[in-house]
Amino acid sequence: MNSDLLSFYPPRDPRTRGWLLLESTPYLYSLLVAYVLTVKIFLPTWMRHRKPFELLPYIRAYNIFMIVANAWYFVQMSKRSYLGGGFNFVCQGITHKVDSETMRLLDLHHQYLFIRIIDLLDTIFFGLRKKWEHISVLHVAHHCIVVFLVNYGAQYGVDCQPLGAVLINQVIHVIMYSYYFLASFGSRFQKYLWWKRYLTQLQLAQFMTIIIHSVAPLLFPCENLPGMHIALGISSCSFFLIMFLQFYFQKYLSSRGAKTR
């Protein structure tokens, strides 16, 4: 294994020091704790004797915003990295550059942290509509872990291999929120949503791709890529892969087997 990878814990990236939230990690963690308590305890209690809120216009506007935001950040970040910025697909270490394009990339990723915080609102919408079946442990854990990882990248260097995971996830979010938007119109669009079951397969493919991309630096000479970056990429996506596989088997394969019997 390359000696650079044995430097497991990365130093704080000096290029992003003083940026909003990046020097206030306890505030971010407090926000995530508040999110979990709200969606798992407060909202179920508060909504117990209330009717579901009618929020479709707001949800559709939110979905459109998330589609546009993820698409825009994908274009802006990819052209400064893997699709125009000269990044190495097999192994890209932290560049440590401070030129205008690199700093713009870091700034875009920092902005994207707030998009992922806004992403937490979809769980609030589920709660206000009493769609409790959607607020699973997997759903809540996925949101919290992704916010943590995006924040970690902003603090310890994101102009490297893990940025590929961010870009892949942005594409997935464009597709997912497009589905949510169309599904919000009910039966009128149901015949066009035959691809719903393939969304989970797409998520599974996403996690497997990110795991392979994260493992690659262990197999080839690689410099300036901390071991922690690799460990977080592999461990988090392995967790998501196992959880989503369990969900997929329960929702689709088990139900299909029951119908066959």
UniProtKB/TrEMBL annotation:
Keyword Amino-acid biosynthesis among UniProt keywords: no
Keyword RNA-binding: no
Membrane-spanning ranges: 27-43, 55-75, 110-128, 135-154, 166-186, 198-220, 226-249
BP term (GO), one: fatty acid elongation, monounsaturated fatty acid
GO cellular component annotations of the record: endoplasmic reticulum membrane
Principal location class: membrane
Membrane topology of this protein: Multi-pass membrane protein
Location in the cell: Membrane
Pfam families xrefs: ELO
Molecular function per GO: fatty acid elongase activity
Keyword terms, alphabetized: Fatty acid biosynthesis, Fatty acid metabolism, Lipid biosynthesis, Lipid metabolism, Membrane, Transferase, Transmembrane, Transmembrane helix
EC number(s) per entry: 2.3.1.199
Swiss-Prot/TrEMBL catalytic activity: a very-long-chain acyl-CoA + malonyl-CoA + H(+) = a very-long-chain 3-oxoacyl-CoA + CO2 + CoA
Family matches, as InterPro entries: ELO_fam
Protein family (similarity comment): Belongs to the ELO family.
Name the record gives this protein: Elongation of very long chain fatty acids protein
